[in-house]
């Protein structure tokens, strides 16, 4: 794994993130992508705006969007693609994590080989 592969933000997702950061008055800020314990299958994705990186962050940039990932989250996220899809019902972010061996219908909860979780209803 290289730190540059921690996550990949598509062009479509980058434009959507820019809009969200602008609405939060964080035009010069960062998108933080992280993983927390919990959720239907053991782990949950988190995305939020952040003003500055910390010492244990990996800093990536895609289409003008600066992305922060904690070094400790990088192995679980390695190769994850974040996209934004539009449909007749609206739009939303999609997350495709090649390390996930199980996920919940909610789309934000997952389990990897090395993390135990108990699937429950979302």
TrEMBL record:
One of its GO terms (biological process) is iron-sulfur cluster assembly. GO terms for molecular function: 2 iron, 2 sulfur cluster binding; 4 iron, 4 sulfur cluster binding; iron ion binding. It holds the Pfam family Fe-S_biosyn. It comes from the Bacteria. Residues 7-107 form the Core domain. Gene3D superfamilies: HesB-like domain. InterPro entries: ATAP, ATAP_core_dom, FeS_cluster_insertion_CS, HesB-like_dom_sf. Transmembrane segments: none annotated. This is Iron-sulfur cluster assembly protein. It comes from Abyssicoccus albus.
């Amino acid at each position: 794994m290289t730190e540059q592969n921690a996550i990949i933000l598509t062009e479509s997702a980058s434009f959507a993130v820019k809009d969200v950061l602008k609405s939060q008055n964080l035009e010069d800020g960062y998108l933080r992508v992280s993983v927390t314990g919990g959720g239907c299958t053991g782990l949950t994705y988190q995305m939020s705006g952040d003003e500055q990186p910390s010492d244990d962050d990996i800093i990536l940039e895609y289409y003008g969007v600066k992305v922060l990932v904690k070094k400790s989250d990088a192995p679980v996220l390695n190769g994850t693609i974040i996209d934004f899809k539009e449909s007749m019902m609206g739009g939303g972010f999609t997350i495709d994590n090649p390390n996930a061996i199980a996920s919940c219908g909610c789309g934000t909860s997952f389990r990897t080989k090395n993390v135990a979780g108990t699937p429950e209803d979302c």
